[in-house]
């Protein structure tokens, strides 16, 4: 994730089962620290599906934070072999409490 910065979510196969976990960047000792799976869900067939609750992703809510930006990267032996999209992040707005009212029509 580029926004929020300092957060990763990784998925790997452990003993034939998918396992996902959040990671947090520790700036005082520059490295990633596993936080655990939180309430996230992951499933895969021909498509990888993730459900990452905003409460797990954002931590204590920052009311000014209204956007997400991220890449999907595929690693093999700690080497990035794919990135999607390749040249710019996926960006999306975080819906606020007025989202449905602004977008509802009859």
Features:
106 residues; 2 helices; two-stranded antiparallel ribbon; globular
Short description:
The protein is 9% helix and 48% strand. It is mostly beta strands and 106 residues long.
How does this structure look, described?
- The chain has a three-stranded antiparallel beta sheet.
- A hairpin with a 2-residue loop joins strand 7 (72-76) and strand 8.
- It is mainly beta.
- Helix content is 9%, strand content 48%.
- It contains two helices and nine strands, in the order E-E-E-E-E-H-E-E-E-E-H.
State the helical fraction: under 10%
- Roughly what fraction of the amino acids lie in strands? over 45%
Mean pLDDT: 88
* Extended strand count: 9
The span between the termini is 36 Å
SSE-based structural type: mainly beta
Largest sheet: 3 strands, antiparallel
Write the layout of secondary structure elements.
Elements: E1 7-14, E2 17-26, E3 31-36, E4 41-44, E5 48-51, H1 54-58, E6 67-70, E7 72-76, E8 79-84, E9 90-93, H2 99-103
Antiparallel strand pairs: 1-2, 2-3, 4-5, 6-9, 7-8
